[in-house]
Every structure is written in C-alpha cells, then in structure tokens.
Amino acid sequence: MNTVCLIDTSVFLNLLNVPNCNDDKEEVCKSFMEYTALDCTFILPMATILETGNHIAKNGDGGTRRKSAKRFCDSVKAAFNGEAPWKPSEFPKSREVMNWIDSFPDLAGQNKSVTKTGEGTSFADLSIIQDYKKCIKKFSMAEIFIWSLDSDLKFYQYRPQPRP
Description:
Elements: E1 3-7, H1 9-15, H2 25-37, E2 41-44, H3 46-57, H4 62-80, E3 86-88, H5 94-109, H6 123-138, E4 143-147, E5 157-158
Parallel strand pairs: 1-2, 1-4, 2-3
Antiparallel strand pairs: 4-5
C-alpha cells in the first residue's frame, strides 16, 4: 500500500452524482480514475457517510432524493461488504468520541481559516481529521491524505519520512 485516501463528503457527493452537489463531477471522476490507477486505498469516513446522507435527504423533490438515496445505499453497503473501491473507516469507540468532544469547543470557537472567519471546525470534520490521524499510525509507511474540495481539509497530507 503506497497511498491512503480519506474521502470527504464534498468528493463523495460528486462520485455519487448527487444533483445540486455534483458541480465538480467530471474533475472528481477523473481524479478518482487516476488515484485508482495508482492503486490508492480509499477510506470512507463515518462522517462522510452521515453527511452525504444528510445532503441527499435535503436535496430536490422526493423522486430525486429517492434515486440519490438508492445510489448512496448501494455504495455504502458495497463498502461494508468489501465490494466497493472504498472501505468504511473503523467507527469510533465511545472513549474516542468522548476525547473529541473535549476538544470540540475550542475548535468550534476558532476560525476555520483566514478566509473562513465565520465558522470553526465542525464535529464531522474533526472526526475525519481523527480518522486521518489513525491512518497515519496504522499505515505509517504510506502517503495519506484527505481528498476534499474543502480548502481546509485538503491540506491534510502525510508523507512518511525516509529511513536513514
């Protein structure tokens, strides 16, 4: 395994071709094919699954939501069954979530970035960042990154240090 990619909601919505959330579909699909050709391992974080479902449930008329929800369910089930190009992250234990909760007020209160001064880090993003940190521990010799269209998350990139 050379590269591990955590898929953010912004990317997953495009891969699933969810109407009104798929403006970058062509670019995302092209990148997906390139990453696949490089034998990248794709991880689907719990937060991505939950947030994608939320976006679908709020999007369009009932028929549109139903069709998108069907694609979503098929894709997530396939991930859990080992039949998709991505696999779900390990869902966190209660103790892990309790630790995240303790750090959340500070992260929510800080500006997300210099360009996003009206928002802090969401709890969903915090959980994706924690998944990223777990991957670094688990796959320390692999390159690891969060694939996101969100300018804040896409800066999470890990490259192993060469051994002397």
